[in-house]
Amino acid sequence: MPFKETLVETREQRGMTQQELASKLYVTRQAVSRWENGETEPSVDMRKLIATVLDIPAIRLFDIDTTQLCQCCGTPFTVPNMPRGTEADGAENPDYCQWCYDSGQFVYKSEDELIEKTTPFLMEATGMSQDEAVSFMGVIVPHLKHWQR
């Protein structure tokens, strides 16, 4: 569900007005209205704050289908020629990309290591700042299959 719809639905379920939400977020009511109308979108960190105030998982405020992502790093498999990871016998693994899973072995040992190594690629692909990319990865990565063990 798009961010603007999730925001309206969740705010209303909580019985909050735009003004009440705005006060808790330290923004104007007009900012909340613009988000809900789809005129603008809040930053990654603001979405995390909104999730905290509304008591929902932050990932709900990102319109992301995690089933279409590498289940280790979050790279979309919709990227053209995205190489899949391989098992020890050379068979393709449908859940992981080649940069995370090679010959039956995971490359990254921790979420922090993954985020540190992949942030520059996310920055290049999206134009995000380093802080935004790290924050975004911090929202997505814990919801991926490999890190939910």
UniProtKB/TrEMBL annotation:
Entry's InterPro entries? Cro/C1-type_HTH (IPR001387), Lambda_DNA-bd_dom_sf (IPR010982), Zn_ribbon_dom_put (IPR025868)
Q: Name one Pfam family in it.
A: Zn_ribbon_2
On whether S-adenosyl-L-methionine is a keyword of this UniProt record, the answer is no
This protein's UniProt keywords: DNA-binding
Which terms in the Gene Ontology molecular function aspect does this entry carry?
A: DNA binding
PROSITE patterns, per this entry?
HTH_CROC1
Q: Where is the HTH cro/C1-type domain?
A: 7-61
The organism's superkingdom is given as Bacteria
According to UniProt, the name of this protein is Helix-turn-helix domain-containing protein
Organism per entry: Adlercreutzia muris
